[in-house]
Design a protein that fits this description.
It contains five helices and ten strands. It is an alpha+beta fold and 206 residues long. The chain has one domain. The two termini are 18 Å apart. Bound molecules: iron/sulfur cluster (2 copies). The site of one iron/sulfur cluster has 10 residues, from loops.
C-alpha cells in the first residue's frame, strides 16, 4: 500500500523540528510508534528554553520516576507497559504530551527510516542542516557542561540545581549569541509530500 506523507520542516535554529502527518496513524500499529523505543534526554541546550517558556516543567521532569541524572543532563527513562516500553510523556489518547518546541532534539528531529526523507536529493539542504545542527548542539552542550562543572555545579545534587539553572542562562546566551552560518541554509518552513510504500507492525522500520 502506498501513501502520500506530508512533512513540514521548520528552521528554528536550535529548536528546529520536523512534523510528520503519518505519526497519528503510525504503521507500527502499537499506538506509540517510535515513542515506545526512546527515552528523552534533556541537555543544557534544552533547559533554558524550558525554563523561559514552561518553568514548571523542569521540576516536573525531576519529579518523574526512573531518571538517569548526570552532571548536565537528565534522561526520562521509558516505563514498561503491556507491549514493551512507553515514553513517560506518551499518552495513548493524544500522543506526546509535550508541545513540539519543549521536546528535546531527537524527539524534534527523528523521522523513521520507513519514510527516509534524507534519501531525496531535493531535500539535501535539510539533510545538511540537521547534520550540522546535531554537531553544533553537541559542541554547545559540551562547552556549557564543561564550564558548569568547572564551577562545581551538577544536576546530580538537588540543592545545587537552582544555582545550576541560574548560571546556565547567561552561559547559554553567550554561547548562542553568534548564529552559525548553516542556520541560513534553509527557509523558516518548507512543506513536502513524499510517496512511500507502507508496511505494518514490526515490518515498518524504526
Ligand atoms: S515510527 Fe515513523 S510514523 Fe511512526 S510515530 Fe515514529 S516517526 Fe511517526
Ligand atoms: S518526549 Fe514525546 S516525542 Fe519524545 S519519545 Fe516521549 S512521547 Fe515521544
Amino acid at each position: 500500500m502506498e501513501r502520500d506523507i506530508v512533512l513540514v520542516f521548520h528552521n528554528q535554529g536550535l529548536r528546529s523540528y520536523i512534523e510528520v502527518d503519518l505519526c497519528p496513524q503510525c504503521p507500527r500499529l502499537n499506538d506509540k510508534g517510535c515513542c515506545g523505543y526512546y527515552s528523552p534526554v534533556f541537555y543544557p541546550t534544552d533547559l533554558p528554553y524550558i525554563i523561559l517558556n514552561r518553568p514548571g516543567l523542569v521540576d516536573h521532569i525531576f519529579s518523574l520516576p526512573h531518571l538517569t541524572i548526570l552532571d548536565a543532563s537528565v534522561t526520562v527513562n521509558s516505563l514498561v507497559d503491556d507491549d514493551g516500553y512507553r515514553c513517560q510523556f506518551h499518552s495513548r489518547q493524544t500522543g506526546c504530551l509535550l508541545p513540539m518546541m519543549l521536546r528535546e532534539s531527537v524527539c524534534r528531529h527523528f523521522v523513521c527510516p520507513g519514510i527516509g526523507w534524507w534519501e531525496e536529493e531535493s531535500l539535501s539542504h535539510w539533510k545538511l542542516f540537521f547534520d550540522q545542527l546535531a554537531e553544533y548542539e553537541i559542541a554547545v552542550n559540551n562547552r556549557i557542561s564543561g564550564e558548569l562543572k568547572r564551577r562545581g555545579l551538577t544536576l546530580r545534587v538537588p540543592e545545587l540545581r537552582p544555582t545550576f539553572y541560574r548560571e546556565l542562562m547567561p552561559l547559554f546566551k553567550k554561547e548562542t549569541e553568534a548564529k552559525p552560518g548553516f542556520f541560513s541554509l534553509c527557509p523558516a518552513r518548507e512543506k513536502v509530500v513524499l510517496r512511500r510504500r507502507l508496511s505494518f507492525g514490526k515490518d515498518w522500520c524504526l
